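Run Embryonal stem cell-specific gene 1 protein through structure prediction, thanks.
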Amino acid sequence: MGTLPARRNIPPWVKVPEDLKDPEVFQVQTRLLKAMFGPDGSRIPYIEQVSKAMLELKALESSDLTEVVVYGSYLYKLRTKWMLQSMAEWHRQRQERGMLKLEEAMTALELGPWMK
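Sure, done. The structure for Embryonal stem cell-specific gene 1 protein is below.
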């Protein structure tokens, strides 16, 4: 997903400063970001609006992980964290199944791993 967009504003449903304290934080494989959030994070505003939370993505240096920080009221941020973790797992499994199908097809065509 390249560079992550900087946060410019706080959505109106996030109460300042109480909702900005004690965010929920988890990590997602960077390769899943485009599938989850769209190209250049284009789906983030929609996800924030529907979940009534605010998201912030932070690329972790020397890692293939990105930190997802969820701000909002207690229940909204827990629900949003659970939803995003579920989405990440679904996309991870989907990509894994795609790789297995590709390997099976290559085996069926008798293409060796040197062709990958």
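The longest strand covers residues 65-71.
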